[in-house]
Amino acid sequence: MPGPSPEAGSPSSSPRTTGTSISPRRVRRRGAVTVTEQPPSVTREGITIQSLSKVYDTADGGEVTALRNIDLQIQPGEFVSFLGPSGCGKSTLLHIIAGLLPQTAGTVDVFGTPAAPGRQDSAIMLQTPVLFPWRSVLDNILLPVEILGLDRTSATARAHELLELTHLTEFAQKNVWELSGGMRQRVSLARALVTDPALLLMDEPFSALDEFTRERLNIELARLHEELGRTTLFVTHNISEAVFLSDRVVCMRPRPGEVIDIIDVDLPRPRGAEHLASAAAIENESLVREAIAEYI
Ligand SMILES: Nc1ncnc2c1ncn2[C@@H]1O[C@H](COP(=O)(O)OP(=O)(O)OP(=O)(O)O)[C@@H](O)[C@H]1O
Ligand SMILES: [Mg+2]
Q1: Atom of ligand 1 nearest to the CA of 58
Q2: Which domain holds residue 253?
Q3: Is the pLDDT of residue 111 over 50?
Q4: How far apart are CA 247 and CA 222, in angstroms?
Q5: 16 has pLDDT over 70
Q6: What pLDDT score was predicted for residue 105?
Q7: How far is ligand 1, taken at its centre, from the CA of residue 87, in Å?
Q8: Taking the CB of the first residue and of the last residue of the chain, which one, N or C, has fewer CB atoms within 10 A?
Q9: Residue 203 maps to which CATH number?
């Protein structure tokens, strides 16, 4: 995979400006990432966010600047986390990239075309899995295939592969209400992957889970990312989770939501349980903690 390209505000592209710059002393090169074959829609462009701002109108007639001047270049196959305190615009950013929310200013290009809703090449996974209790686990996973009108036979074969990857094979015909919270999130992850999206958007997918389950799912997600190599944007409040999973951690601050720093995670891949509390992981975590210290 190609290395990260210069981003707006990076030391190689422009001087430091409030909110979008990368502090030179914190930027570190990351190791090589194994990327498997990409779907045809993936282009060399990756995801390009330029001068992005979002202002919401509030119910009392005022305005909230949820995002201001976001500039970011994400490479195909990269795993990038967005981390910052509540209200810094993480969900807003993810929803704009998903094409579910219009921006106020700026542009977002996903694999060479403007962000738009209903793209077959992207999937979003939310904090709470929205599963349908009248459908089996397998049929919940196949839902996007039905919505997009894709071939069910090949998708069913893919769904079975994903059931295996997420360790759910024996639950394929179960009702979703028979599953634990962690298992439901794994169903949600399998459903997000069933159309083989080139871009996976995840908004705090594991934050409602207990620590043990979260850790296990983080290990599974790291393994899936290394097997599938899909571009993944992951929102979290959890520093260890962000470091363990990511190639880069985008640190944000609130009101207005801005990028304050981007940390290149220096941890080898493939990543497994042994990296969770390794000295290198802790060192990376302290860089992230330092970047957002003011907002913890
Ligand atoms: N529909 C809306 N109307 C008005 N303001 C909104 C709306 N949605 C979000 N906001 C405001 O935009 C800002 C960013 O919200 P957003 O949900 O993107 O933050 P977040 O970083 O995802 O927060 P959290 O970590 O709590 O999920 C907040 O100040 C929020 O109050
Ligand atoms: Mg949010």
Answers
A1: 4
A2: 47-121+197-295
A3: yes
A4: 11
A5: no
A6: 98
A7: 5
A8: C
A9: 3.40.50.300
